[in-house]
Design a protein that fits this description.
heterodimer; A: mainly beta; five-stranded antiparallel sheet; 11 strands; 0% helix; 52% strand; globular; B: mainly beta; four-stranded antiparallel sheet
């Protein structure tokens, strides 16, 4: 079993749609969770951290369910510019190890 | 100017050649990392360093070596390149868990 598993993609959605990505992780000791965005052939960039209480940044909402070891990302009112690959990222082990595990990524294609 | 830079950005080389990829950062972070990314696979950690005197192997260190010349510089070497080392290589830095990536080096080994 992979340490971080994501929904298989690609997701093809029309502009304005709401889309949700899911991710599960296997290490119950993990403490830090992130969503990164990666454009084609570019470096990953932090989209948002994921907190236990859930957090929102504009059209983006991240949720964490520790009991189920599950993370989600919701994008509302999709824009063409949201087209990218979204990486679910979890730290390996407890606290501040600095070692991250990256999921394979889920590709989103927003169409006019 | 970019906070994390990598050189070269693209490189084509032949099997058996020695290659060095360089990474520099101006973020003042102690922690630096080297990853490779292959199509259909997530980023995989090659080596990481938490300070100048600290070097640690990641999950796929075989065939690679690193040097932490200074807080701001971390280089990755392929002593004898082979075709399955063809990949996109990223350097990253962090203070704690949030990592910041360089633009990547696309390496092709023929």
């Amino acid at each position: 079993r992979k340490e971080v598993e994501q929904d298989p993609g690609p997701f093809n959605v029309p502009e304005g749609a709401t889309v949700a990505f899911n991710c599960t992780y296997s290490n119950s000791a993990s403490q830090s969770f992130f969503w990164y965005r990666q454009d084609c052939r570019k470096e990953p960039k932090l989209l948002m951290s994921v907190y236990s209480s859930g957090n929102e940044d504009g059209r983006f909402t991240a949720q964490l369910n520790r009991a189920s070891q599950y993370i989600s990302l919701l994008i509302r009112d999709s824009k063409l510019s949201d087209s990218a690959t979204y990486l679910c990222v979890v730290n390996r082990g407890s606290s501040n190890t600095g070692k991250l595990i990256f999921g394979q990524g889920t590709t989103l294609q927003v169409k006019p | 100017d970019a906070d994390v830079t990598q050189t070269p950005r693209n490189r084509i080389t032949k099997t058996g050649k020695r290659i060095m990829l360089e990474c520099s950062q101006t973020k003042g972070h102690d922690r630096m990392y080297w990853y490779r990314q292959d199509p259909g696979l997530g980023l995989r950690l090659i080596y990481y360093s938490f300070d100048v005197k600290d070097i640690n192997k990641g999950e796929i260190s075989d065939g690679y070596s690193v040097s932490r010349q200074a807080q701001a510089k971390f280089s990755l070497s392929l002593e004898s390149a082979i075709p399955n080392q063809t990949a996109l290589y990223f350097c990253a830095t962090s203070f704690y868990n949030e990592q910041f990536f360089g633009p990547g080096t696309r390496l092709t080994v023929l």
